[in-house]
Design goal:
- This protein has a three-stranded antiparallel sheet, with no helix packed on it.
- The chain is an alpha+beta fold.
- 12% of the residues lie in helices and 27% in strands.
- The chain has one domain.
- The N and C termini lie far apart (24 Å).
- β2 and β3 form a beta hairpin.
- It has one helix at 22-28; strands at residues 12-15, 41-46, 51-56.
């Protein structure tokens, strides 16, 4: 996992060891902040579904 410092708008990148179904992951994984609040984000896959990018949004 690669990430920037807290409050960054850069994507959180998660590298998977094998391809996993993007739609399943999109609906199953949530990013939360240090208070447990879900961070609204755009979730994208790349590298044949072996990398997920979570980009925080303002909404």
């Amino acid at each position: 996992m690669e990430n920037e410092s807290a409050g960054s708008k850069q994507p959180l990148k998660i590298e998977l060891h094998e391809p996993l179904d993007y739609l399943l992951l999109k609906n199953a994984i949530r990013v939360v902040d240090n208070t447990g609040t879900i961070v609204n984000s755009v979730i994208e896959s790349e590298a044949q579904e072996t990398m997920l990018n979570f980009t925080p949004t303002n909404s």
